[in-house]
Amino acid sequence: MIPRYARPQMTALWEPEARFKIWFEIEAHATEKLGELGVVPPSAAKALWDWWATNPAIDVPAIDAIEAVTKHDVIAFLTWVAEQVGDEARFMHQGMTSSDVLDTCLAVQLARAADILLDDLDKLLEVIKRRAFEHKFTPTIGRSHGIHAEPVTFGLKMAEAYAEFARCRTRLIAARAEIATCAISGAVGTFANIDPRVEEHVAEKLGLAVEPVSTQVIPRDRHAMFFATLGVIASSIERLAIEVRHLQRTEVLEAEEYFSPGQKGSSAMPHKRNPVLTENLTGLARMVRAYALPAMENVALWHERDISHSSVERYIGPDATITLDFALARLTGVIDKLLVYPERMMKNLDKMGGLVHSQRVLLALTQAGVSREDSYRYVQRNAMKVWESDGQLSLMELLKADPDVAAALSADQIAEKFNLDYHFKQVDTIFARVFGV
Amino acid sequence: MIPRYARPQMTALWEPEARFKIWFEIEAHATEKLGELGVVPPSAAKALWDWWATNPAIDVPAIDAIEAVTKHDVIAFLTWVAEQVGDEARFMHQGMTSSDVLDTCLAVQLARAADILLDDLDKLLEVIKRRAFEHKFTPTIGRSHGIHAEPVTFGLKMAEAYAEFARCRTRLIAARAEIATCAISGAVGTFANIDPRVEEHVAEKLGLAVEPVSTQVIPRDRHAMFFATLGVIASSIERLAIEVRHLQRTEVLEAEEYFSPGQKGSSAMPHKRNPVLTENLTGLARMVRAYALPAMENVALWHERDISHSSVERYIGPDATITLDFALARLTGVIDKLLVYPERMMKNLDKMGGLVHSQRVLLALTQAGVSREDSYRYVQRNAMKVWESDGQLSLMELLKADPDVAAALSADQIAEKFNLDYHFKQVDTIFARVFGV
Amino acid sequence: MIPRYARPQMTALWEPEARFKIWFEIEAHATEKLGELGVVPPSAAKALWDWWATNPAIDVPAIDAIEAVTKHDVIAFLTWVAEQVGDEARFMHQGMTSSDVLDTCLAVQLARAADILLDDLDKLLEVIKRRAFEHKFTPTIGRSHGIHAEPVTFGLKMAEAYAEFARCRTRLIAARAEIATCAISGAVGTFANIDPRVEEHVAEKLGLAVEPVSTQVIPRDRHAMFFATLGVIASSIERLAIEVRHLQRTEVLEAEEYFSPGQKGSSAMPHKRNPVLTENLTGLARMVRAYALPAMENVALWHERDISHSSVERYIGPDATITLDFALARLTGVIDKLLVYPERMMKNLDKMGGLVHSQRVLLALTQAGVSREDSYRYVQRNAMKVWESDGQLSLMELLKADPDVAAALSADQIAEKFNLDYHFKQVDTIFARVFGV
Amino acid sequence: MIPRYARPQMTALWEPEARFKIWFEIEAHATEKLGELGVVPPSAAKALWDWWATNPAIDVPAIDAIEAVTKHDVIAFLTWVAEQVGDEARFMHQGMTSSDVLDTCLAVQLARAADILLDDLDKLLEVIKRRAFEHKFTPTIGRSHGIHAEPVTFGLKMAEAYAEFARCRTRLIAARAEIATCAISGAVGTFANIDPRVEEHVAEKLGLAVEPVSTQVIPRDRHAMFFATLGVIASSIERLAIEVRHLQRTEVLEAEEYFSPGQKGSSAMPHKRNPVLTENLTGLARMVRAYALPAMENVALWHERDISHSSVERYIGPDATITLDFALARLTGVIDKLLVYPERMMKNLDKMGGLVHSQRVLLALTQAGVSREDSYRYVQRNAMKVWESDGQLSLMELLKADPDVAAALSADQIAEKFNLDYHFKQVDTIFARVFGV
Known about the structure:
The structure is a homotetramer of 437-residue chains. Chain A has 19 helices and six strands. Chain A is mostly helical and 437 residues long. Chain A has a two-stranded antiparallel sheet with strand order 1-2. Chain A has a two-stranded parallel sheet with strand order 3-4. In chain A, a hairpin with a 2-residue loop joins strand 1 (139-144) and strand 2. At the A-B interface, strand 1, strand 2, helix 7, helix 9 and helix 11 of A face strand 1, strand 2, helix 7, helix 9 and helix 11 of B. Chains A, B, C, D: It holds the Pfam family ADSL_C. Chains A, B, C, D: Residues 353-435 form the Adenylosuccinate lyase C-terminal domain.
């Protein structure tokens, strides 16, 4: 966890306090059900919950001190709770194994992390949607291979991003369901010493599904799928970040990360406004993506479990979720405040002197009866002049002045082919598909 | 594509013929709709389908020869079709861009590949299920950290695998939906020169969803999710493969890859039956997993598209699906014919002289009123003797002969703690969860 | 292997013929030494080499047919050779194990692949060097964060690439040494049935080092290092490819991939020259990088060997080397013929009306006794005017006309601060460091 | 950074104090040279070093507080130093850019990290060497595919590990040289405002090489190679860790991670000694390996630099080096104290009733004039009996009693074929190769 790339809510989820609180809830719910089943006295759960109702502080150093002796984190925690609650606490953990607590706790943590990330995505989607409608008909040049192609609108770019992050949202919901399972099944998953109804009870109370079959642990293909999904979401962040970085290039300058009016540019160069936030997002995406790999390597544990996954998860559990939370929030801020320059977009669009419309003219000539070969030659010879003028000449004017073209198309007909609106006639359709309105 | 790791059905999907056939279907369906919309003569589509009804061979070398001149694969194909169909063919591709054909074709190929993989998974699941019920109550030692823990059954191991691959199946269905979309939206996705209803028509005919918003291409987050899912499935293959490899180790030998009775072992050493199929699967899993990464790096294309994703997909499209298809089929064969040795399982289970039951005795002693400390000491001193005998002594017999233990528990009570069935009382519950029966 | 991304020389290395020829050489050299040591008759090696001197064709289908029966590739090959050579051939392979042949063969293949790649790098370096000197003093704007910073020369960009690929060359030489080892040490590497001098002899004859200690196989950390190095080289290819793609963007257009004068642009749009080669290189780099991972996962083979590495190497052995060879050659072609536009570079450099020189003016003012705060204010107010004019105004002219500035600096002094040569005074130094001249 | 997987010396390297100290040294050395060159007064450097000689504490919170205002880390630091040193400090950083400080500092940090890792490797090598000689002739079964093959010695296993980590050491020295370079070249690497001799001076003082050509930053292919090398080293750690995990499996139990005599096993099961340290190392290896990827993705920065690499390095700089340092030290501890059980090794070796020697008998029979087919049949029929007896019968005794075999070989000759020493006759040769003695 890198403090500068971390936000408090997500970070808190991975603090010892949070973990111990979840451990307590698991143990208390289990004890409750064990009481109902007559395995332990019903008073045990009551004692636990009564103490819990006092909202006791978790004394992490005290627990750590016990662990330093017992060399076992769950036992250390149970010992500390017993010191607080008294004799009734000895009934906790009956028939359970440490992994029951640890794995179910991880499920709760990852599910809560997913909830935060879903909230992040909702905020991002909202912002993107606003900018999409704001610029629904703001013309800008579409580029393939980094080269001018045909006109699009900035709103369409935003609509694409919206659709992409809406997909990410759907994926994250599925990924959350993958890891939100509860396993309380004992040393090798056979329920030899604990009734499956305890598992069902704890699962219900914690909002988890029951793990149908566990070994000692919850199977790690679930976590692999979860972290792989985060990697895909990070890749979508990278895509939008790189779009902004491109738009902010000095020669393009169609949009910029927000820069307050009074803010001082780098020294005396007012053009030196760097897209540092989106560059940062590009790097963060690389990290989240990298974490998918060890998660996949974690799947093939030996037999009923080995503990090689544990160290990996100590890294990637916090690192992937905290980084992605930060990145989504940062991206939301970038898009929210993005400075968009429609005039510059139009200027760039016109930069090629109307060449982006050459295809429409070509088509019109053939429809007006000119052979395809001649049509091509007429357009091409004028296009080349525009190109060689570096956009100083206008293709429309040259075409109007070309006798061969003029013989086939009137000046008005030619002018109509340079109408931007022609390209935007389906923007409503696309928006309806993406936003449902 | 490595021939020895490829099966014909999946490989055929990636052959030039298959691709050209899909291209034709896309173009013909589009022409059909363009005819309906009055953009081209209705006779155009008829001419195409009439020719198609003759089941014409695709002359790949002829198309390649045209491409060598035109330097453009889609134009080469259209030219060749026009040569076959005649004049009416000139109406094909009206208002479309090459990527409309290429990306929609890839969607069809990946969707069909997913169908094959789903079929593979069904076959694997069926085989695992059969072996699970066959060995539902075959006792075997459960191992955590590679060390004997408590008893499980071999059927439970199979049930775990079944549940895992059932999850893989669900994931693959979702991944298939991710990539099964159709985009016919023109040069930068604005439908400037083609009606969105063409896209809808082609999508419906090919069994695809409509891509709500495309640029020039279908967004690559879809493909990233698809290949990441294949990577997770591969990791589950690796897990089961490694389980078999472990079981086949000389010292364990609880199961073996099939070896026909007459088959000659490596030279004169009959024990030298190597788990080469599952070792092979371990390696193949590494490859499929590796392909997830470039797929994620493909997401951040520049602006409305760059073509950097294309070369990556030429590799991983075939390589990931062909390899995974082969691996699933190979794994199915391994599990189908796996030689399972229940006697050896029991022998290994007993190897520690009953130490795996020590916890139950410990619990029984405390329940019989012995203090936890004393209980532990009584069990431990006998357990150590068994351990030092390398499993030659029997814990049960030693405990019966231990006066302190005998004072608390009768011989029958002690013997009951060594009852394997105790561990299997929830196997029915687990099977019901996993198999629904 | 994707034919369109493959070149004949490297591909041939991975053909069955090439492999079988290396196998023969290994076996024949080994037999020769065994003859010297008196283990087999000296006539055996003579018979082998005599046959070999006839330059016999390798009948791959015949060998495959034998393998179909024996299920063992090395035995099939030996059988076929015996059929050709006659009785003396039975002394081949004495005391050896298949892996001795397979692993040593792989070493030869990878070493030869490395030689081809080194040759590729030499060609690339030569081309980069030529372009570097050609444009040693061609001014162009340096960009940090995609934003104009200060002037550099295009030759410096090439010098950076040269230095980077020279490092890649050094790395590849080290990587070649990693994998160029010979192991002929028998079933578990103990030389139980073969004299170590056989290994030494074969190593010497094949230009390999002796593997100091092998198990059944050559340790795979060597191969991991080899493929990781290829991944790093691929990343450097990506860097230069992305530089070209940026320079070719419509708004920048400082350089372009070669486009023959007569070549037709995409339809009627002459500006539509896409950097498809470098986009392709970007994708290829992703693949070569991806192959580093399974190579690293191959290291941890079980005990004296398992065969999980083998399938991985069947993919990445050819795929990584063939792809990288192709990519290096393609990049060489791109740089060799790159269209460089110095006028456009100068135009872009001037685009900001001289703002890139503002820092030097600032410094000059402070050195002329103006306070830092005032200096900043004077420069900043003029810089803002230039910025707002979108480069139409000239910073130099505005500064000359600013009374506060003029009070401190003469017009000549101001003009001197806009001298590009100031920035290039160390270009000779840098070139001397990089090229040694 | 995960505290439980971190050691103080390496962690300290990445603390703010350490970073600020290196910054100071860079600035002070640069100022010194600038003084010599007459660019700044020589008194400036003196003032800096005089202050430094007082061994001043670095007030990190104060520097952070300044950064909160200036939004620039290097300026904040310079400001704080100026507050301490006084007026002379204003000459610091003349003509330099922040990256000059940041990148050179990273070079120092990574070089020092490499030194710690090299020291770790030396300690590991020393321990492995000791165990290798201790068990030079301790017989143990060699296993291919997890299946018994032929005898090796435990010392040979250690020798293999020694050779592998010796290679890792060589690689790390090369990787250290990759990143140990100094760049003080100004805003875009042209030395426009700073003399290259300053760079040379600082490099020499800090023990770095001069970066021949930098942009604004040191090129990231260097760092990619560094982190890729760490990934390979981690993979070798994984290999040895997995060897220990295999040896400790209940059924194998040829070695165990250290377990103090008085230490309590998991509950009452003395066999439950889990190889948790090596399982942990397996997971840590996955992490270090994963970090190689974003390092490679960092190479292709845009033009003269973008800052996307920076966030990646904030993670992997500390995480990769701290984790690898911890892992190497942990592995050293594991090997140092590894409990090795020669008796169990021998017992396992004999487990197959001597089948591992069957090949030698086969060869002896053919050398005694028996046809290959008959030899095989004689050995095979006895081997099968041994195999079916699960190692209860002895192959040697059966062969002696087989009339066909006895007709060809005397009892002594047969017995000689079961001599383990036969397999170890080249151990001295191998040790001489690996250890030079």
